[in-house]
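Researcher: We're teaching a course module on how sequence relates to structure. For the next exercise, students receive a sequence and then see the predicted structure as tokens, so they can try to spot secondary structure elements on their own. Here is the exercise chain.
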Amino acid sequence: MLLLVLAALLVVPHVACSPLRGEQEAAQEDPLIKVQRYMKSNPETLEELMMEKHAMLEGDMVLSSDRNAVGTSWPTTAIPYAISPELVGRTADILSAMAMVSEHTCVSFPKRSSESSYLHFIISRGCASFVGFGGGEQPLFIGPECIVGNMVHEILHALGFHHEHTRMDRDVYITVLFNNIMEGREKNFHKVPGTTFDLGYDVNSILHYGSRFFSANGDRTIVPNQYVQNMGQRVKMTEGDIQKVRRLYNCESPKAEEESVVMKETMDDATNGTSSDQSSSLQQLNSTTRGQNNTSY
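Model: And here is the predicted structure for the students to work with:
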């Protein structure tokens, strides 16, 4: 049934007003293969396209009933986490994703003990997250197709970041082809005012949409205005991604640096097994990304 729903969304007449070379062949591809490829390539959109438990924005961003909480940074740089038993088989990937975020920032992820506010990784159809700190148990949704890079993307949403392609200055760098977007999903491509931390637009950001997100016909929904090789990549955080985290969480401040050092020492001295999980997560990260977690292009 879910495949039929997606097929109905994806198999529509080819849009003639934006002819892009080489994409007519994609329109003639077997519909089932097209749907399966879309589901595997764009797991961040599945939670919205399938039967939704929560109101969604831009595919993988869950709208809180308390709009004032959306986009708020966490009150600490040490963000507790818990992993649902259903996701125990994905523990190494989840640890790798958290390690990618913490490696070059002051944000750390200690295993939850009794904290009332924490990230809770739970099983779902696709990848999704609330945006920013909401307080209490905050679910972060992980589906079968979510790789480490997708998880990093969602963790950054949970830290308070929106998609890069919604920046107000995006038209200088990309062109959104609204005629190729699934009907009713145009809102996912609207520009939204927000803080840019005086950082330049980052087409390669792990928070940027890929070229065919929410495509109604297999054609591109976003085209870079200049040649870009890695738009929509989910392999590593760019230097821009790292700087966003560092600036939002004031990682240059003495207090943040001190908290980061204390948390690292606490994790190193832990005797309950958490230390070994966290210390091995960078090794898992290198293995999962084939050593491509380095932030330099």
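Model: If you want an answer key for the exercise: Residues 1-23, 55-59, 63-70, 285-297 have pLDDT under 50 and may be disordered. The radius of gyration is 19 Å.
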